[in-house]
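Notes continue from the previous slide.

Worked example: a multi-chain complex. Inputs as given:
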Amino acid sequence: MAAVQETVDRVRQIDVDQYRYGFETLIESDKAPKGLSEDIVRFISAKKNEPAWMLEWRLEAYRRWLTMTEPVWARVSYPKIDFQDLYYYSAPKPKKTIGSLDEIDPEILETYKKLGIPLREVEALEGVIRPEGERRIAVDAVFDSVSVATTFQAELKKAGVIFMPISEAIREHPELVKKYLGTVVPTTDNYYATLNSAVFSDGSFVYVPPGVRCPMELSTYFRINERNTGQFERTLIIADKGSYVSYLEGCTAPQRDENQLHAAVVELVTHDDAEIKYSTVQNWYPGNSEGKGGIYNFVTKRGDCRGNNSKISWTQVETGSAITWKYPSCILRGDNSRGEFYSIAISNGYQQVDSGTKMIHLGKNTTSRIISKGIAAGRSQNTYRGLVTAHRKATGARNFTACDSLLIGDQCGAHTVPYIEAKNSSALFEHEATTSKISEDVLFYCVQRGLSQEEAVGLVVNGFVKDVLQQLPMEFAVEAQKLISISLEGSVG
Amino acid sequence: MNVAVAKTDRVEAADETPFALARSRLPGSGAVADLRREAYDAFQRIGLPHRRIEDWKYTDLRALMREVLPLAAAPDAEALARAAAALKLHAIDGVRRLVLVDGVLAPSLSEFGDLEPKLSLRSLRDILAGGDAALQKELFGLDSNNPMIALNSAMMTDGVVIAVADGAKLTQPLHVVHIASGGAPAAVFTRSMLKLGNDSSATLVESYIAGEGAAAYQVHDSLVIAIGDRARLDHVRLVEDGREAFNITSSAIDVGSHAHFNTFGMATGALVSRYQAVINVAGEHSRVETNGVNLLNGKQHADTTLVMNHDVPHCASREVFRAVVDDRGHSVFQGRINVRQPAQHTDAKMMTRALLLSDDAEADNKPELEIFADDVTCGHGATTGALDESLLFYLRARGLPEKDAQSLLIQAFVGEAIESIADDSLRDLAIGAAARWLEARA
């Protein structure tokens, strides 16, 4: 391509502050000793003032974890993780008991401000100008291992919606937590989910009562700050009969040379006629241009459409992390239930993405839809791995899958590994996948009209991912679009 | 999404393994014997593959096959007579027949005379017993990380080694027939090789059939093919083994530049069959067409696993696969297209479709793409479903009985793959085999 030197120079410039969220917040923190043992699990549980049953649950998971081995089937490679060289608990040191938002450490508030996350409710109101009506977002901010603030609690309470850090929910709504925790992702599920079950420190808990349409978008913002810490959050969302909730998740981390571990578990449950829409914009630090540093993002996300006519929809924009290992899945148990998965996975530099979904059709007339767009640039590897399966009794199951990959540059790789299993003759599955590069003609056309090469690529890529971006709530769609252009900067040539 | 685990089954006593028991009857000594030993060790490290090994996820031989049967005895006069009878039913006109009975080349049933110029035919047994060392080594060159290939390498007794010299265009198709004569349940281990010189062309047909009374026998076959530059090979394989039989066949194919390889496989027989092929497109501007059909009923299980390696630029490959599954049948298709970084301008497509005719039928598809080159056009599609109700209704409204209407639609469905066979009479052969399956169903 033309102007190679120009591109190279630009890449160099961009590289320095390509990751905008790489700053570090200097605050005092309260850490558990390094390493993992039964004592650490007890320590975390005690820190959270947890009831005895919760500690028992954690210890059981920990003992189970000791017997397990790390999964190796994903197309990712990384040096062996030393699980004893991590801090499993880190909390910003409380100055005193927090009564209101004003009492949060100003440094943390500043951090979230820099990240563009409105923690003060007033600011939230003054945030983005809404075209029509007023749309507000309740935010639960998780800083390292603890939730530091949850906004709009009072208003949500009025609607009957419970939205609080899971550590509080364990104390305040033990019956709900006990009933649902670990029922979608059992503690024995996989290596990282089991580890998470033993040491998870915080996360969000949402319960939407029957017939309630959650009055605002719920959002959690995760931030890893402390050095050498692992973040293990646990999210549990329950939509009771006929309810609806839309939940957004965002994440960032400082720029560091060492790799940090993020092993989260997200469980969703929908009852009859309920719907959960779960959107993620994942922008953990991806490592520098030589592939040094970055987050290992090993996440287990699963939704259980337990009720008839229920629906779970996953939308994800994956731009960050050195390694992504993530398969948000739907168990379509209820009759007529529906699962959706919309994904954009962008990898650049030395990033490795192995992501996809599982659609497990168990109920009658269940439908699912998978739209996955993978974009690989630089020296990255981008894999879609998905399973669609219809069980014997899943008569009338329907699936449509489209996974497209775009390759930018000749040092990257794009892979598709679909598993399609039909055990029922009335199941109708369609799957298509394509891999291509951006057409020279299209680029030429754009450049001829005065766009630079990078702008042209950005335009084409945005068109390529449009199907998925449309699924995101508006606020996130804007952010995601910007992220896509940042992630791809410097990939032309 | 599984990982391999070490073999934990009981370890057979060293002198009771099928290998130890058959050792004195396996051709070759010295270096060949050493290569056999190595291959058997490679097999034993894993044993029969099971579902925890990713490639065998859907075909768990430890559960399906359970054990490797002892090596079949060389055919006696009676066995050859039964084989001759079976052969009559499956004879094809105008071909040169090369027959293996119970894993042993049977000259009395084969046509070795009057060879076209530039064609050479030899038996694997002769080469292993005293051939040139380089060729022996080549014959052992298959990937012994795959346990079933390793087992085959260790135990292979016979096969046809075919060489077509540069510039030779064979007019007569070669028909390699594997016959299980129907003696006591046993296993046969064969390996054949075809080397096509530059600018040559040939047609190879393989059939797997059984004599009367053949029951739970095992066929372990393998095929090594090298296609020279500007050469063309048309390849058809028909698995019509007995309904209790096992057929595990592996092949490795190297394709030169400006070459053309067209291959078609169909499985209507055998209780459990697996065809695993690795096709290396190693020369530029070559074209590969791979087509397959599985027609299954009863408790049949058929697995087709294809790996297409694109290592060089400007090549094209097409894979078309159709499965029709009735009763408690289980069809598996695993296709992987690997496009390495130098293989720019690759045009690779894969389409796999399964038709499920009963509620107990199962079809598993795993069409993978692995792409490291950016200037390529690659795609795959997969569908699974039942017969279209409205099409059935249309045909029935025109007076066709339900079974006939179904047969017609199934014929059209598999026709897309069968049509790829270039030779008219071979295409008719495949259509005939499909028709026989449909008739048996009705």
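Summary box: Residues 185 and 217 of chain B are 5 Å apart (CA to CA). Chain B has a mean pLDDT of 92.
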